Each structure stands twice: as structure tokens, then as C-alpha cells.
């Protein structure tokens, strides 16, 4: 449910820009997530800036000169139960941190929120619910940024067993040497074609961030959707054949638990599983066939959220150009 | 007398190992850090000899526990493996007495702590520390522990304050501790809800 503020609050859409010290290696993962890849905790620090919207500075219209607004950065780290508030400086049309902020002593995820607040109590010429008057009132917010301080796990192609194999040499794939991936549904295991050109393999098997990562995700994300769909379809057909979802095991069981809400449109996972089980075991296969043919491909695309991932890279490109 | 601090050196969540493993079988790693648990040991002995009721334990040991560990580095105090050692090894008997059910039937976070604010606050030892850190940030307990004792008798205060993000804003919440310490359970919850609502409209640092 949307929050109804007692007055108009601006929600600025510009993403804050973070700059780290040269010793800290970071990977900008999407529009607002920053993963620290390599750091010296004694040196890890950043500065932050974000454009100032005219709407905020002109909040009080003609009377804006009489109102003082503070811009505050609030840094929260739940793992260490830390919270710091720092006032920011207004420089021209942007606001920036007064000095670099050290974060090497923190752990896990650091949340950054920026607020524009009323710096002093103000007397309004007329009573108005639309005009805040009390010191500390939040006038505007910016999108939250997240910094992940722990090194990311190695990218091994998801937690699902994956192996690079020359398709030209494997019995089930040798007639398809240009194919990208093959799912062995029995094991189950994903094979990726080792016959792919070396330049492409270097990108797919690499660990680099930035545009290389964007390229890697652009290539592998649709593959992940397709693999998920194959596995889920196999699990559902297997459950139908063996008399119910409770007969599924391991990764198949986990996958159906994850995707059941999307397949049924029911938010509660337990209810969704029950409903899906009814569909799977129903003597009339109409609803089951419909899920396999139409809903499953959509659900897998939704689950893997390819468009958001790729759009994050598009936004990053816009910001850097 | 000072003694070395240890950290649990294995994942006790795997296969619910924490439910059955003996204290002597838990893998530990010794740190270079030292603390003095003399007063806490003495309080523990007193609890056993006087059959102190479970619900009075927090207020009785609070000052001794907080004074002993408050100067440890923040990365140790935010390390769940430290709290696991304190709970399942060093003061296991005391902790078992504080529990409502046996260890084998107790929820994971109550014994092993966790990363979320709520889970950091399920472990009895850790939540005593969390709350007293707000009440006595410099460790100077000049009120003969009156405020701390009052707060630790009010379980709703402990959970309502330290489970919420609002509880991380220590200077702000400190201004309200005196009032909260004198409240009953329902009033505490109501009061905290009101503060939480205020924090949605105002930056609490300005209040």
C-alpha cells in the first residue's frame, strides 16, 4: 500500500554517483548496486554526488529564499548495527559529500539514503497541509544505493551443475556443433558448448565487470531462461507421471517451490504449491497443458528478470557516456 | 582474571548440528582478545545457588555481561560466531537456564544469532548488549544500573527497540529510553510505533 505523506514529498529519480578511492576495485552491478571486488579495509572510502532537482530548491515557490534546506546522507549497516548521518554540500546544481566516507570497518551490505530536510522551523503565512513547517521534515528522497563489501562468490554459472563440453564430441549433441547449451535432464546437468569461438568463450568464462559483464549477461541471460524452462517443464511432467509434486526431489523440487507462485498467480507459496499439485494431478489435463504451453515460458522470463538486468547495463552506459 | 575470547569455527546450522552437539565438540578458534568474566561468573554461580527465575536473569546479569564485553572490537561484537561461543560453550549452562525449552527445541536464531536486525536480537546475550549499548554508550553506569535494570525487565522494550532500524539511531532512541523503561508491554509497543511513524516523516536526527 502506498504511503500517503501529510504533504507533497519529492521522489527524485537521479541515481547518486559514487566514486571510490583508486585502491578499491568495484563492480557497478546495475544502476544502484556496487560490489567491492578488492579492497584494503583501511583505505576503503567513497564520495557521493547527485544532481539537485529544481523542484527541491523551489519547494516553497517565491518564499524559497527564507527556507533553509539541509541535504543529508544516511549510511546504514545492519550487520554491524551502525548508522551515520552526514550533511552534504550543495555545489551548483548538485549535492556532494563533504569528505570521503570510510566504510572498510563495516561488513556485508551498506545502505545509502539521501534526504532533503527542512533545516529550521518555519512560520507559514497561511495554514496549509501542503507546506511542511517543522525542522527535520523530509522534503525529498533519492533512490537508495547499496554497497556490498564482501567479495562476491566465484561466478561458476549459477549453483546448478554446469560443465563446458565440446558438443562435437558428445553423442547427444554432435549433430549440433553450433548450439550453445544442452540440458541433461536425467542427471540433471547443464552443458555449455566448448566448441564456441575462443573470443566468445573468453568473455563467457571470464570474471571481469563493466561492459564485458554486460556482454556476458546479454548472452547468458536468455540461455538461463531457456534452461529454467526446460527443467521446470521436465519437473512438472515428471510430477504428473508419478502422481504429484511431493515425488519431486533435489533441484527439481526446489525449482518448482520457487516458481509455483508465478505459475499459479497465487502469492502465498504453500497455497500456490497446493493449487499446482491439484492442477498436476487433475484427470482433465486442460489447465496443466495450458501452464506448460503458455504460462511456463512467461513465468521463467519473470523469474530470471532478464529485462531488468539488461536495462541496468543500459542505464550504466547512459550514465558513463 | 582475563581470559581469551574464542569464535566458533564451524557452521552449526548445517544439519541442525547446534541442536545435538556437545559444547566440548564444537570447533573453536582462539583469538588474541581478552575479557574479564569474573563478575559474570560470580553472578552465574549466584543464579544457580539461589534458583533465580528465568525471567529475572537478563536484568541480573546485564551489567556484568555488558561491562565485560563492551570494549571488544565492533567486528567481534557483530560476528555471530562470537555470540555462538558465548552461548553454546562459555556460558552454556546459564543460557540453558534462560531458555524456555531445551536447546534441541529452541529456534536457530535464539542460539546462533544472525545477520538481520531481528535475528541479532533473538540471542539473549546479544540483545542485552544491543540495548545497553544504547543506554550506556560510554560504558559509564552512573545510575547504579537503574535504567538498564528497568529496560531489561521490559522484554517489549528490548525487542521493540532493537528489532527496528530506528534502534540503530542511538542518540535519538536514547532520548526516549527513560520514558520507555517505565512502560508496560502494550504501551511500549504503542510508543515505539509512534516514534517509527515520526521517523517516516522527519529525519530523526533533527528531532
How would you portray this structure in words?
The complex is a heterodimer of chains A (321) and B (207). Chain A has helices at residues 54-57, 198-205, 210-242, 250-264, 269-281, 286-304, 306-320, and strands at residues 10-11, 17-20, 25-28, 33-38, 45-51, 69-77, 82-91, 94-97, 101-102, 109-118, 138-141, 145-148, 162-165, 181-184, 189-193. Chain A is an alpha+beta fold. In chain A, strand 7 and strand 8 form a beta hairpin. In chain A, helix 3 (210-242) runs antiparallel to helix 6 (286-304) and helix 3 runs antiparallel to helix 7 (306-320). The longest helix of chain A is centred in the C-terminal third of the chain and has 33 residues, at 210-242. Chain A starts with 9 loop residues before the first strand and ends with a helix. By secondary structure, chain B is mainly alpha-helical. Chain B has a two-stranded antiparallel sheet with strand order 1-2. Chain A binds chain B through residues 3, 5-6, 72, 74, 76, 78-83, 85, 105, 107-108, 115, 117, 134-138, and chain B through 74-75, 78, 115-117, 120, 130, 165, 167-170, 200-207.
Helix-strand layout with pairing:
The complex is a heterodimer of chains A (321) and B (207).
Chain A: E1 10-11, E2 17-20, E3 25-28, E4 33-38, E5 45-51, H1 54-57, E6 69-77, E7 82-91, E8 94-97, E9 101-102, E10 109-118, E11 138-141, E12 145-148, E13 162-165, E14 181-184, E15 189-193, H2 198-205, H3 210-242, H4 250-264, H5 269-281, H6 286-304, H7 306-320
Parallel strand pairs in A: 1-11, 4-12, 13-15
Antiparallel strand pairs in A: 2-5, 3-4, 5-8, 5-9, 6-7, 6-10, 7-8, 10-11, 10-12, 14-15
Helix pairs in contact in A: 3-4, 3-6, 3-7, 4-5
Chain B: E1 2-8, E2 28-36, H1 38-50, H2 57-69, H3 74-77, H4 80-90, H5 92-98, H6 108-112, H7 124-135, H8 146-153, H9 155-162, H10 170-181, H11 185-201
Antiparallel strand pairs in B: 1-2
Helix pairs in contact in B: 1-2, 2-7, 2-8, 4-5, 7-8, 7-9, 8-10, 9-11
Amino acid at each position: 500500500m502506498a504511503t500517503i505523506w501529510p504533504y507533497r514529498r519529492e521522489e527524485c529519480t537521479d541515481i547518486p554517483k559514487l566514486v571510490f578511492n583508486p585502491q578499491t576495485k568495484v563492480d557497478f552491478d546495475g544502476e544502484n548496486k556496487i560490489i567491492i571486488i578488492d579492497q584494503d579495509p583501511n583505505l576503503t572510502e567513497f564520495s557521493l554526488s547527485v544532481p539537485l532537482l529544481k523542484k527541491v530548491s523551489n519547494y516553497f515557490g517565491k518564499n524559497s529564499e527564507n527556507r533553509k534546506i539541509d541535504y543529508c546522507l544516511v549510511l546504514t549497516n545492519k550487520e554491524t548495527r551502525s548508522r551515520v548521518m552526514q550533511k552534504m554540500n550543495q555545489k551548483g546544481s548538485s549535492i556532494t559529500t563533504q569528505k570521503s566516507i570510510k566504510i572498510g570497518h563495516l561488513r556485508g551490505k551498506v545502505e545509502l539514503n539521501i534526504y532533503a530536510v527542512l533545516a529550521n522551523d518555519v512560520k507559514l503565512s497561511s495554514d496549509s497541509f501542503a507546506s511542511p513547517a517543522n525542522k527535520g521534515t523530509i522534503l525529498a528522497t533519492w533512490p537508495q544505493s547499496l554497497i556490498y563489501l564482501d567479495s562476491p562468490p566465484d561466478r561458476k554459472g549459477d549453483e546448478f551443475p554446469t560443465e563446458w563440453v565440446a558438443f562435437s564430441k558428445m553423442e547427444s549433441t554432435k549433430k549440433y556443433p553450433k548450439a550453445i547449451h544442452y540440458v541433461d535432464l536425467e542427471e540433471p546437468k547443464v552443458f555449455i558448448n566448448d566448441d564456441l569461438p575462443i573470443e566468445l568463450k573468453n568473455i563467457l568464462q571470464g570474471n571481469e565487470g563493466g561492459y564485458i559483464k554486460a556482454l556476458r549477461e546479454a548472452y547468458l541471460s536468455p540461455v538461463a531462461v531457456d534452461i529454467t524452462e526446460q527443467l521446470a517443464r521436465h519437473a512438472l511432467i515428471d510430477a504428473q507421471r508419478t502422481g504429484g509434486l511431493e515425488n519431486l526431489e533435489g533441484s527439481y523440487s526446489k525449482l518448482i517451490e520457487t516458481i509455483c507462485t508465478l505459475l499459479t498467480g497465487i502469492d502465498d507459496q504453500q497455497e500456490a504449491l497446493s493449487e499446482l499439485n491439484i492442477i498436476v494431478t487433475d484427470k482433465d489435463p486442460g489447465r496443466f497443458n495450458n501452464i506448460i504451453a503458455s504460462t511456463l515460458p512467461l513465468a521463467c522470463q519473470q523469474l530470471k528478470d532478464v529485462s531488468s538486468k539488461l536495462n541496468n547495463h543500459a542505464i550504466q552506459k547512459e550514465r558513463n557516456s | 582474571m582475563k581470559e581469551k575470547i574464542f569464535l566458533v569455527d564451524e557452521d552449526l546450522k548445517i544439519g541442525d548440528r547446534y541442536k545435538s552437539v556437545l559444547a566440548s565438540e564444537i570447533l573453536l578458534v582462539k583469538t588474541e582478545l581478552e575479557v574479564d568474566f569474573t563478575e559474570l561468573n560470580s553472578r552465574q554461580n549466584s543464579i544457580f545457588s539461589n534458583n533465580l527465575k528465568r525471567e529475572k536473569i537478563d536484568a541480573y546479569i546485564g551489567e556484568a555481561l555488558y561491562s565485560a564485553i563492551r570494549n571488544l572490537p565492533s567486528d567481534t561484537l557483530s560476528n555471530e560466531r562470537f555470540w555462538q561461543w558465548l552461548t553454546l560453550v562459555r556460558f552454556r549452562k546459564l543460557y540453558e537456564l534462560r531458555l524456555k525449552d531445551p536447546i534441541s527445541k529452541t529456534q536457530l536464531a535464539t542460539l546462533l544469532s544472525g545477520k538481520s536486525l531481528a535475528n541479532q536480537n533473538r540471542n539473549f546475550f546479544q540483545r542485552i548488549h544491543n540495548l545497553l549499548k544504547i543506554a550506556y554508550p560510554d560504558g559509564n553506569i552512573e545510575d547504579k544500573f537503574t535504567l538498564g535494570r528497568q529496560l531489561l525487565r521490559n522484554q517489549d522494550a528490548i525487542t521493540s527497540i532493537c528489532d527496528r532500524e530506528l534502534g540503530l539511531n542511538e542518540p535519538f532512541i536514547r532520548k526516549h529510553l527513560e520514558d520507555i523503561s517505565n512502560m508496560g508491554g502494550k504501551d511500549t509497543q504503542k510508543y515505539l510505533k509512534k516514534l517509527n511513524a515520526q521517523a517516516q516523516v522527519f529525519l530523526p536526527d533533527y528531532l
